[in-house]
Amino acid sequence: MKIKRIAIVGGGTAGWLAANHLGLELYKDSEIEIIVFESADVPTIGVGEGTVPYIIKGLKRFGISEAELLVSCDATFKQGIKFINWLDSSVHRDNHYYHPFDPPYPEGFDIITTG
After folding, report:
1. Cys-Cys link to 64, which of 16, 18, 59, 115 (CB 3.0-4.6 A)?
2. Cα three-residue angle 85-45-95, rounded to 5 degrees
3. CB within 8 Å of 108: residues ≥ 6 apart
4. pLDDT above 90: residue 24
5. Is 42 helix (H, G, I), strand (E, B) or coil?
6. pTM score > 0.90 for this model?
7. What are the b/e assignments for 93-109, b being 16+ CB within 10 Å?
8. Would residue 28 show up in a list of annotated catalytic residues for this protein?
9. Which entry of 2, 4, 57, 78 is annotated as an active-site residue?
10. What does the domain layout of the chain look like in residue ranges?
């Protein structure tokens, strides 16, 4: 049996990224339909929980302009992730861990350091 319809439940970051990835891989098959169900009752959170630097490669694959997306969504680049209550403060002094993202940075992104 051939799958002809794919339903993605949830229109958040993961839902729309899944739809884009599947659409890119399956676009040549005109029999396949992909639909995203999103609730009008669930408000936008807007925290960018899935937008780590790797998203730039995905945007390029999807043919989405990074600059246009940033302006349209009033977005920023995430520089790292802070894990709160991640460590035992009696051992590590602090109970959090900050993980900065390493280069490569997006094309055209300049790092300016001050002394």
Report:
1. 59
2. 10
3. none
4. yes
5. coil
6. no
7. eeeeeeeeeeeeebeee
8. no
9. 78
10. 5-79
Report residue 18's pLDDT band, with 50, 70 and 90 as the boundaries: very high
Contact indicator for 11, 36 with CB cutoff of 8 Å: yes
Beta strand segments in 1-115, E: 5-9, 33-37, 80-83, 97-100
Check: CB of residue 31 under 8 Å from CB of residue 3.
no
- The total of other beta-carbon atoms located within 10 Å of residue 55's CB is 20
DSSP, collapsed to helix, strand or coil, labels residue 5 as strand
Contacts of 99 (CB under 8 A, 6+ apart): 80, 81, 82, 83
